[in-house]
Amino acid sequence: MANREALRELQTRLASRLQAARSEGTSVSSWLAVESAGNFYLLPLGQSGEIFPWVSVQAVPYTQSWFLGVANLRGSLVGVVDLAGLLGSVALRTEQALSEASLLAFNAALDVNAALLVDRLAGLRGTDAFVSSEPPAEDSPSFFGTTYIDSSGTRWQELNLQILSQHPAFLSISA
């Protein structure tokens, strides 16, 4: 009972601090920035879940090449999806590269037992980290959001994980 009350107090304090930061004009991060096969992506914090280091993945036969298999993450079996492979990039990863990679679980609210393999975590980003933006191209997948460009010219593609998790390509893992 005391734990629930402590959790409620923590949530209340966090909500009030976020609201205060917004009203003061303080930058609030909106995305988790990741790199995968040389491409840069922005994943909404509200749709992102826990981050795990690379763990052993049990391969599943007769699945798409981007579906790496299943892994045990905190006692739950989750499907592991190579983000680069799903988006059409080819990423040949060595054991060393995999040991530096991370698994990003989907937020539990999305009700998806999956995690994305990303090569590198690049921190948190807010809109103030970018100098310009472009709307998604007409031929881009429905889960692509705005493309943001930072001061060094790097293009960051926003991905809507909720739409991605319901996209037919993501749901069709059989080869």
Automatic annotation (TrEMBL):
Domain CheW-like: 28-170
SUPFAM superfamilies hit by this protein: CheW-like
InterPro entries: CheW-like_dom_sf, CheW-lke_dom
Pfam (any one): CheW
Protein name in UniProt: Chemotaxis protein CheW
Gene source species: Acidovorax benzenivorans
